[in-house]
What does this fold into?
Amino acid sequence: MSIVLILFLLPAALYAGVWWLSLRGRRRALTAGMLALALALHAASFILPWQAGSFHYGFAKLLSATVWIGVLLVWVESARVDLASLASLLAPLAIVLVVLPYFFPGVAFDLRAQPPLFVPHLIVGTLAYGVMFLAAMQALLMAAAEHRLHPRRPADRPGPLTSLLARGGAPLPPLMVLERILFRVIAVGFVLLLLTTVTGIVFAEETFGKPLPLNHKTVFSLVATIFVGLLLAGHWLWGWRGRTAIRLTLGGFMLLLLSYVGSRFVLEVVLRRF
It folds into this structure.
């Protein structure tokens, strides 16, 4: 087993430990410490494979960075609210996605040959993905909490998500707390999406000579940004919440996921074009 693979497996093992502890809903301090170490090792894995003067980036690296940002925000927020249930949702994804770039390292970009706004656009876009990913996980947690409080029929059996969360000893946070955090996260995600659009317009102008090339990535990114903006406007103006907010949050994230991750996956894995 190579040393590089071991460096990817170490944070995966720590995330597995976090998942095991969060499902039991106890040892909160130990879980937080283990999660902090996993985040640090996960962040270090972003530079792998190391190549002087360049870095690798692709759909796997983006997914790994996305889940890292989501877990980081949960770790920060858990200082005020017990979010063991949300950690139990994110940890299994983190176990898989932290290792994925080892098998799909992506494209090697020469930093010296890139336009000035390439790296800022990439960083802001990745942050937007990570924040909206956390919003999607938060929406799933809200769906489980709402189903537990208000089942559609008294005889309904809990769904797989509710059953998974029920295995832990920690109770779900109050629905109002989850909703408040959700819209706070969505607002941050919307600002990052707008910044991604602005830097993308300038970057495209520098690279292709036109501000908005109508390709798969641009169309889905713009639609996702408008979608998230309408959700925030509906919440503030017309009081959209509950299942409406959950469905629209998940829909917006799926559109965002289809923009870059979908296109890079097709190019790198299906078409084998790097």
About this structure: DSSP finds ten helices and two strands in the chain.
